[in-house]
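Why do we care about 3D structure at all? Because function follows from shape, and shape follows, mostly, from sequence. That is the central idea of this module. The next example makes it concrete: a single protein chain, its amino acid sequence, and then its structure expressed as tokens.
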Amino acid sequence: MAEKISFTAGGKPIFLYPAGKTAPLVLLHTVHGEGDRVYRAVHDLTDKDFSFAAVDGLEWDNEMSPWPIPPIAKNDTPCNGGADVHLERLLAEILPAIKARLPHPPAYSALAGYSLAGLFALYAAYKTAAFSRLACASGSFWYPAFYEFVCENSMPKSPQKIYFSLGDKEARTRNEILKTVEENTRRLVRHYEQKGIKTIFELNPGNHFHQGIERMAKGIAWVLE
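And the structure:
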């Protein structure tokens, strides 16, 4: 495994683990600095060589959300819809700074995320062709109007592979918005399968917060294969 390089780009702390040769680059948005644990967990699952970059310090409910929505539960916070602004910064500042620190250009770039960051990964594919593989673990596909957005828009270039997963208890909730997550995720899987994109959906035991590191690592390992 690679030694970690820490730096700041686009106002965000970046933690980079560069491969020593030409290899894929996996970019992961993190919320609690879990990049190191995910990186090690992926190495436990695959012997594929890859560079890994964790982007931290996010305004999670703002920068990972595609458009504004009000709070979905009592005492919750609204999502402010700042994904486009963050994606512009990611492409213009963060991704170039990461690639400049790699010893070799990446074979391809993959975008991974958990929860809202999984939603962001798929949303980003409708705005840029920079990422050819996507890993969406327990993605927030309950997000209002997101499935409709997918049906009404097209990607600039279809990704080679898309990974989806959920916990088998995530849809078991009284919240009328959150309970749509499994149905919507399965609809997305069918949508991309029909377009000929290599797609997989895995149902894991537990709720949204169970074994998040392991679930994310599984998704990354799959897109690297």
